[in-house]
Design brief:
By secondary structure, the protein is an alpha+beta fold. The chain has two domains: 38 residues, GTP cyclohydrolase I, N-terminal domain (GTP Cyclohydrolase I, Chain A, domain 1); 133 residues, GTP cyclohydrolase I, C-terminal domain/NADPH-dependent 7-cyano-7-deazaguanine reductase, N-terminal domain (GTP Cyclohydrolase I, domain 2). It is 42% helix and 24% strand. The strands form two sheets. The protein has a five-stranded mixed β-sheet with strand order 5-2-3-6-7. Strands 1-4 form a two-stranded antiparallel ribbon. The longest helix has 16 residues. It binds zinc ion (ZN). Zinc ion binds next to loops.
Amino acid sequence: MTDHAHKPTVSQAEAEAAVRTLIQWAGDNPDREGLVETPKRVAKSYRELFQGYEVEPREYLEKTFQEVGGYDELVVLKNIRFVSFCEHHMLPVVGVAHVGYLPTDRVVGISKLARVVRGFARRLQIQEKMTSDIAHAIQDVLRPLGVGVVIEAEHSCMTMRGVDVPGASLSTSCLLGSVREDPRTREEFLRLVRG
Ligand SMILES: [Zn+2]
């Protein structure tokens, strides 16, 4: 069981009441016409935006890997767009992930890599942890020779409030196994990701 695992004990009505409170906190009147349905919509959209709590991303890899005969070069999927939410402010983190691995005997369909990214993104996150979560899930399940994950993202909590620096983006990376240790593999991964 992971630290976020929990049974949902909050009802839809309680979630909507909390949104009403935040509307009032923001300074508006939750009973005015344009806002009457808003708590319901927000509660519903939270179910979608935080779908990551309902999935175990490792399962996408466990169920679907295929044996690979002889392919021994890097597999890299670039520019996987994602939306996440920072766990400090619950504001959007929008960016792209680049994911690569050097297979031994198992590969997965590329859509599964995108699903793993989405599964970890749709939670309250910090980018460093998300980067590491994705890399270790691939490492643990596919047991490749190496894994590389690079994420570049814009944090709304930084670009629209606080220090207020539009356009600033945060880059994080997690390199494991040969992608970390073998200079040739590492260089090739980073070249593919940047190219
Ligand atoms: Zn934040």
